[in-house]
Q: What sequence folds into this?
């Protein structure tokens, strides 16, 4: 079903008119109210009055994650705090997180964006929707919750309950729609198998999975294992949260909500815009946001756009799955972790050398992370087991507290981690097959 | 119906409109809110061809009208109700209204003129009663009805109004706006320029906020009503823009 017939099926020419109008007023507002953008435009000698088309967007400077970090907490807000109704944040773990604020209208639009994804997945007021995303500072839980309520579905915020508990809810509450990270869905699927519950005996019929990259193979696996239609969606907290793009029933690319976000694909090295269809870094400009507008935000996500209309009738452009990152961001259990964040914890711990390796694996559908780290030769009482255990437990706890991820920490002998030529350790080894 | 892209206009050295983009779809009531001097009247004058556009494009029903003479624009179905009514005070109501259909009358279509006149009288019965009274002797509200009626006599698809509530008592304003709200039912599209944001947002589908010649905000009426900047500047809510926390 198409929720917003007016906008989702707008002829491209009319959509462009709408985008230009909204882009121009967004530019005037950020220039007036966000000092970062005033400085950024002025120092790049950009005159926003010269931005007359979507193509002219390329004249504007980019906004990076680093820019947003520096703005901590509220410097990027385009409205006073009194106008903000909700605050979320990214997982700024060791570094400063990025704080985003939503006005009443922002929440309205966000709700509508996730509701569109649900409608595209044929979710209606007859459905029971189970949301197994955390309901906290992250946007996943609340983002879908609002949208599902708008659709009129019965919403279960099962949040971070264990897989067994989720299955109990799913069975007893007669859940028809599951929303979570794909890795967590794998988790649930394997728990079902363990509990010897047949997926057919459940009422599940569709799953909306996002927040981390996944694959067609995993789709097939999940569709078989959970006996559902599995749909992909895309979003990131900085841009709005979930609801930036989502698949329709044809499962061929995610429709981007272009009446709210202008998408560009750039070459991450030259930073030049790439022609439609070519793979590169996704760059988003928000054109309806009041609280936390973004101009040309570099997401670090690698993907490409699909040309031409979709047989579902939507004219909104589609994007392929995210195939990679421009940086070394690790997705694990729906959380995002930079190796540098782990490095920082290791450096703080006394007794370890700054040589480490992160090994990612998947066991019984569960993502696992092992952190191997070399001990310093100078570590006191090197040979005393008790000390080593204490060190290991300290690091494990610190990683869990800071990153929200369970890691198996292994202390290894000094100089035992294999170095490639150039004496560099391959920091991240990902053995997970998606 | 109406599509404007990067429109610039002004008087002499004065740049009033600094690149305006907006659109109005068929059957919509769209409002342009702005303070004095923001460029609202300039915008309507430029669309109706009274003022020449310096840059940008204006498309009415998919045809460019940015270099077209104003009577041609009226003939194509885009009509302006000017600020302050601008009636012929020494002519009767009936004559004022009939003048609105000048282009029809000149082509000898007197029967159609008469039909339209009947429609207007149906909409504003008070004008029928006083059709022979001089326009200058009417109250402000009645004059505004004549002005709207005169514009409708031209048989427009798009009717643009410049501050129809100006100088009118609140009760009369309500009456005028109730009339405007009914225009889409008659197949008319409305672009309204107003300082009275509250009354006009109640009847409009969408709106734009114009500040110093730039559009700084757009959205549905509900979105604009919920925007704190609109509340501060145009709905008289006592908010300061300056951050008070710190």
A:
């Amino acid at each position: 079903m198409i929720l917003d017939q007016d906008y989702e099926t707008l002829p491209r020419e009319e959509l462009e008119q709408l985008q230009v109008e909204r882009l121009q007023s967004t530019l005037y507002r950020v220039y007036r109210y966000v000092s970062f953008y005033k400085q950024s435009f002025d120092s790049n000698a950009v005159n926003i009055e010269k931005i007359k088309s979507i193509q002219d967007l390329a004249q504007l400077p980019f906004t990076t994650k680093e820019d947003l970090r520096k703005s901590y907490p509220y410097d990027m807000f385009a409205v006073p705090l009194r106008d903000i109704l909700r605050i979320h944040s990214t997982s700024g773990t060791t570094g400063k997180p990025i704080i985003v604020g939503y006005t009443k209208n922002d929440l309205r639009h966000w709700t509508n964006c996730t509701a569109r994804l649900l409608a595209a997945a044929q979710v209606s007021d007859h459905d029971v929707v189970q949301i197994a995303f955390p309901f906290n500072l992250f946007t996943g839980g609340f983002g879908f919750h609002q949208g599902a309520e708008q659709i009129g579905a019965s919403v279960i915020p099962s949040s971070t309950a264990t897989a067994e508990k989720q299955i109990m809810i799913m069975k007893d509450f007669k859940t028809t729609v599951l929303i979570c990270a794909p890795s967590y869905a794998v988790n649930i699927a394997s728990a079902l198998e363990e509990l010897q519950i047949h997926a057919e005996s459940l009422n599940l019929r569709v799953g909306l999975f996002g927040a981390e990259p996944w694959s067609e193979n995993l789709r097939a696996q999940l569709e078989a294992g959970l006996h559902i239609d599995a749909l992909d969606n895309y979003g990131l907290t900085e841009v709005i949260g979930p609801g930036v793009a989502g698949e329709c029933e044809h499962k061929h690319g995610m429709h981007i909500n272009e009446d709210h976000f202008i998408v560009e694909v750039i070459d991450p090295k030259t930073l030049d815009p790439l022609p439609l269809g070519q793979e590169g870094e996704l760059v988003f400009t928000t054109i309806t946001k009041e609280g936390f507008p973004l101009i040309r935000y570099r997401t670090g996500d690698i993907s490409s756009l699909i040309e031409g209309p979709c047989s579902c009738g939507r004219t909104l452009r589609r994007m392929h799955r995210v195939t990679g990152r421009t940086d070394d961001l690790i997705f694990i259990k729906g959380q995002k972790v930079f190796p540098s964040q782990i490095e920082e914890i290791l450096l703080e711990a006394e007794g370890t050398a700054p040589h480490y390796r992160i090994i990612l694996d998947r066991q019984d559908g569960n993502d696992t992370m092992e952190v191997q780290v070399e001990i310093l030769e100078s570590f006191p009482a090197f040979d005393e087991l008790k000390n080593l255990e204490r060190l290991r437990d300290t690091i494990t706890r610190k990683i869990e507290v800071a990153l929200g991820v369970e890691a198996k920490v292994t202390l290894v002998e000094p100089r035992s981690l294999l170095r490639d030529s150039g004496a560099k350790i391959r920091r991240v080894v990902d053995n997970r097959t998606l | 119906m109406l599509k404007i892209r990067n429109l610039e206009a002004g008087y002499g050295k004065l740049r009033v409109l600094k690149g305006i983009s907006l659109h109005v779809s068929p059957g919509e009531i769209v409002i342009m809110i702005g303070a004095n001097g923001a460029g609202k009247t300039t915008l309507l004058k430029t669309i109706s061809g009274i003022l020449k556009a310096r840059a940008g494009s204006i498309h009415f029903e998919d045809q460019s009208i940015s270099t077209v003479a104003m009577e041609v624009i009226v003939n194509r179905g885009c009509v302006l109700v000017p600020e302050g009514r601008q009636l012929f005070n020494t002519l009767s109501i009936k004559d004022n209204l009939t003048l609105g259909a000048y282009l029809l009358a000149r082509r000898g279509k007197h029967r159609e003129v008469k039909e339209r006149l009947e429609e207007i009288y149906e909409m504003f019965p008070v004008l029928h009663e006083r059709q022979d009274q001089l326009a200058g002797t009417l109250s402000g509200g009645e004059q505004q009805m004549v002005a709207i009626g005169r514009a409708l006599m031209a048989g427009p698809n798009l009717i643009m109004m410049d501050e129809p509530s100006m100088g009118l008592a609140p009760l009369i304003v309500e009456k005028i706006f109730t009339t405007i709200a009914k225009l889409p039912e008659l197949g008319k599209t409305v672009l309204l320029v107003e300082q009275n944001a509250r009354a006009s947002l109640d009847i409009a589908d969408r709106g734009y906020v114009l500040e110093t010649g730039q559009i700084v905000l757009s959205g549905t009426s509900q979105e604009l009503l919920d925007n704190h900047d609109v509340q501060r500047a145009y709905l008289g809510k006592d908010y300061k823009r300056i951050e008070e926390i710190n």
The longest strand of chain A covers residues 352-363.
